[in-house]
Design a protein that fits this description.
Layout lengths: L1 E2 L10 E5 L2 E4 L4 E3 L3 H12 L7 H13 L1
Length: about 70
């Protein structure tokens, strides 16, 4: 995975972090206006409680429907 911030991520859906852009599986992407917002999102959801992230919830429901 390409990673700009070098955090320890636990979210299984995260695929790429480039400066202000966070990309997840299936092409889901969030673009932030500044680095602090991106870091806050990453620490809160991608490194922490990814189950509370709306993108992760959607992807989890998608993959559960595939089974």
């Amino acid at each position: 995975m390409q990673d700009y911030y070098h955090y320890e991520y636990i979210c299984p859906y995260l695929t790429q972090v480039i400066k202000h852009r966070v990309t997840c599986e299936r092409g889901c992407c969030v673009i932030f206006s500044n680095a602090e917002e991106a870091r806050r999102f990453l620490r809160t959801y991608c490194c922490g409680d990814y189950g509370a992230c709306s993108i992760a919830k959607m992807l989890n429901e998608f993959w559960e429907g595939e089974e």
